[in-house]
């Protein structure tokens, strides 16, 4: 994604001026990532940029195999009719320039839309821009419906008693020694603040404020944000700089520099500057911890938990003077702890949840999976006779698919019922794609849309394993679901 910079302004009602942003992966600029616009290309087994001639050639080849008139058997004729209709639908869309343009940008959903006359003649770029605008508007509506209010709970805690030495306590008139139970009882909650508010769109409320923000992202995993909140003109505005880098999939580290209150001559001369360091963990729910160090040495750790518009903030005063041991203890140690928790607790837990959800989804969609499996089996029956003739024509020196398996390859040794099977035999389906001792399957889309295939393991990582012979020599290859496949290749020699 190219670097970008943006500046925004808003008024009173937003109290997040001093908070660094919780991580959010940059939105893709490519609309194609959010729509299914590759299935018809996969059905015809052509590249997305295929010419009209290539699309017509592939359609004629497959139509000759699937046409109902070629299958007099009543059982096969019904399956052939269904497969031929799907093939014809794909050819109808991809052979029509306007329909292909809409499909490439909006997928099947766009084809079901009744476009007005003006939109019919928009260019691909204009159509894509229009869809992006509609998509942004829908996203804003969804967020607005999801989050209608904001809440915040803040508690200020004075925990200096935990870190003050016995000598300092005794010098201040206290006992010679103070045990940790007494120190813990000395922790004070100095202030509690609870706020629940609804966001209002007016800019006329007092006190008025302005927040200027600029963001720069050189790559999807790195960002820098500069925020300048202007609340009044009694002092120069604070300047906040946040540098962030994704460490793991669900962990982002941030380094925050805040100018705090600062002065230019007499302007803001009563202010005190400070600098802070923070580490943030983010998911759908965000958790953050910030260590703030003032120029007078005061140390405050601020703990935050945020979900959507609700936020819990817990500032804890640790020391009135700078202590390196305390600083390391509240930055390095928690960071290492979060990394360990992510590796040993959060990731395994996430995998278990995903596995459970996939299992539940398979049960809920058992009928749909069974229907798709039958369609794939019917396609294989329709292709069987032509594949036999193709294998005979290839002969001993041609390209012959010995075995091909598609799905979750690790599950193959497991004996399960057919309904729970997460792999399928695609030997016949793959052989049907061989032409003149060559086979090419474009990458960038799932192979589940190929003729004779189906999504045998929804939501799971799938692959294609192929064993074939060429010129009497055995070859083997394993490719990912979205990777291209071509054969024969020397790299596949066993």
Highlighted features:
eleven-stranded mixed beta sheet; 26% strand; elongated; disordered N terminus; alpha+beta; 17 strands; 494 residues
Explain the overall architecture:
- The chain is α+β, with helices and mostly antiparallel strands.
- It is 34% helix and 26% strand.
- It is built from 12 helices and 17 strands.
- The chain has helices spanning 39-44, 52-66, 74-95, 97-111, 117-120, 124-146, 166-171, 180-185, 324-329, 332-364, 366-394, 427-431, and strands at residues 7-8, 150-158, 188-197, 210-219, 222-230, 240-248, 251-258, 274-282, 285-294, 299-307, 310-319, 399-407, 423-425, 439-441, 463-470, 473-480, 485-487.
- The strands form 3 sheets. An 11-stranded mixed sheet has the order 1-4-5-6-7-8-9-10-11-2-3. Strands 13-12-15-16 form a 4-stranded antiparallel sheet.
- Helix 3 crosses helix 11 (366-394).
- The protein is elongated and about 105 Å long.
